[in-house]
Amino acid sequence: MDCIYYDMFPQPKFEEYVTDYGKFLEGHDEEAVTIRRADTVENLLREADVSSPPRPTIERSFHVGVVSLHCLLDASTTHLMNAERLGMMKSNAVLVNSARGPVIDEVGAVLAFHFRILFPSLHSPPEPTLQWR
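Above: the chain sequence. Below: its structure as C-alpha cells.
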C-alpha cells in the first residue's frame, strides 16, 4: 500500500514510523507500506487513483485511492477543496472529509458533480448540532 500526504511542513517522524512499519510487514512476507509527501495539494489530488496497477519502474509508483482531509479550519483551509481542485481528482478517487466547517466548497462540489468531474463518493461527517436543555 502506498501513502502520500500533504502537509505544509515535512513530517519526518511520521514518515519514519510508516517506513519502519513497512519493513516489519516485509519481514512477515506482506506487502510493505510506503510513504512520501506531496509538494502541493494539487499534486496529491492528481495522483489519487484506485484502479491503476503498479507500473514496473525502478522507482516505486504511488497510487492513492482515498483522499482524507484532517485539517483545522482557518483562513488557509476554508474552501481548500474547491471546484478546480475537485476537478483534478481522478474519477475513481474517494474523498473523505473528517474536517469540520467549510473545508469543502459546497458550491464547487455541486458544480464538479454536475459537470461529472467529481469522483463517485463524497462523504462529509454531519455538522454537530447543539441541544440545549
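The longest helix spans residues 12-27.
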